[in-house]
Structures are given as structure tokens and as C-alpha cells.
Amino acid sequence: MSAFNFIKYEVTDGLATITLNRPDVYNALNDEITFELQDALKAVAKDEKVRVVVLTGEGKAFCSGQDLKAASGNQKRSFLQSLHKRYNPIIRAMRALPKPIICRLNGVAAGAGCSLALACDMIVASEEATLIEVFINIGLVPDSGSSYFLPRLTGMAKAFELCAMGSRVKAEEALALGLVNKVVPTEKLDEAVKGYTDYFAKAPTKAIGLIKKMLAKSATATLDEMLDYEAYCQEIAGSTHDYQEGVKAFLEKRKPDFSGK
Questions:
Q1: Average pLDDT, the chain
Q2: Span between the terminal Cα atoms of the chain, in Å
Q3: What's the burial of 185, exposed, middle or buried (CB within 10 Å: 0-12/13-18/19+)?
Q4: ∠ CA(199), CA(200), CA(206), 5° rounding?
Q5: Looking at the chain, which terminus has fewer C-beta neighbours within 10 angstroms, N or C?
Q6: pLDDT of 210-240, one tens digit each?
């Protein structure tokens, strides 16, 4: 994957690590990096060896959002086109990916960078990390999925406050609000992320992918619809190799060796 200029893409032992790599501008998102992110997510989806993904940022920040300096040079810029072509495909790809995505939140996540973090399945944050829906500070509204994720995570009143006031949410408050899964000292961030990736790299990946789909559907479904969808997904899970291995391991009183298939 040496074709990338603004991200790093590495695959080792079932783990794909995607690192936003513009540290000099706090990993701000220009056109090129958003298209590279789309390509990296396509590569992750196609690679059967990949069973878990980590998304992080190089340097002090996770992602400071849209590169306003790059955007200001384009007077004919359309927000509609930019979102449909650059940002929305990333968020859709992340949520449709039938594999878990862990955000290694190493620093500030602002604007679309905050949306990127929230679009992950889990967030492991450094104590130094901050989430900011910074859009309102330049007279804009949240995009890239923030208006979807925030109220589901925090409730409507808190989501309105964060979006309408651009409040800074430090790591410990983010944990209390349910925005992140774990907060650790900066020097222990890699170790904490590895705890999750080691688990997911050996987990029944097909079932994890189905869980993502089920939980997404549950946000807009009735109980009856979810009962039917659970039955549908369970039929799929029950036909996997990992189900057979799980039952066999249980009967043999040993730890299952899941292959992700």
C-alpha cells in the first residue's frame, strides 16, 4: 500500500492499522487524504486476512477536521459535493465494514475528525484526548455522521449542547457520557488498544460483523422487526465454521480456535 501519501496503512497478524499522517497540520483532512481513506477502507473490506482495524492519527492529534486553509483556496467549493464525494463514503464504509474498527484516540478529534472517531465501533482514548464538535465556531452544522451518532450515545439534550455550543469534551467526561469505551494514560494507550485488537483478531469475525448490522438496524426498528432480524442473522451465524468450532471446543472443554470464517 505504498501508493498512499497522507495515510499509513499496515497489516500484521489480522490487524490493519490506518494512520492519518499529516501531523504538521494535526491530521487535517484535505481532498487527497479523504480519498486515500476511502481506498484504505476498500482494501480492508477485501482483505480476508484483516479481522480488526485500528484508526489513529500521527503525532499529537487524532484529526482536527477539514483543512480550512486548503478549502479556502477553492471559491467554488460546494459543501454538498464535498460531503457526498469525500466524507459520507468514508462514514458509510466504516459502518458497513463487517469487521470491528477501534479508534486509538491519541489527541484532539475536532469537527469531521470527531465524526470519524464516533463512527468507529469502539474508542480507546488517551487522557490527553479531547472531542469537539467545532462546526458551530465557523457558523456550520455537524456533518459526517455526528448528528446521527451523538444523540444515540449521549441523549438529545447533551448532543444539542455539544453541537450548538462547540463544547470541549475531555477524555474522562467523554467516558462518563458514553462517548468512549476506555481512558488510559498516554503511555499506556498502545497497550490498551492491543488488548482489544488481540481479542478481535481471534474472535468469530462473521458474528462480529452481524452484530454491527443488528445494532445499526435496531436504532430505527421495532421489537418485532428486530426479533425477525435476529432470527435471520442467527441462521447465517449458525452456518459458519466458527460456530462449528465454538461448539466443538465447548464439548471438548478447550478454548475455541476461531478462524473468522
A1: 95
A2: 25
A3: exposed
A4: 140
A5: C
A6: 999 999 999 999 999 999 999 999 999 999 9
Q: How far is Cα 224 from Cα 209, in angstroms, rounded to an integer?
A: 21
- The cell numbers describing 129, all together, are 484526548
What is the per-residue DSSP string for 154-165? Answer: H-HHHHHHHHHH
Pairing of strands 122-126, 168-170: unpaired
Q: What residue has cell string 481532498?
A: 31
Residues in a beta bridge with 18: 9, 55
**CA distance to 15, 17, 197, 243, per residue, from 12 (Å):** 5, 8, 11, 25
Which domains are delineated in the chain?
A: 7-200 (3.90.226.10), 205-251 (1.10.12.10)
Residue 124 parent element (H or E): strand 122-126
The sign of the torsion formed by the CA atoms of 75, 78, 83, 86 equals: negative
Place of cell 484516540: 105
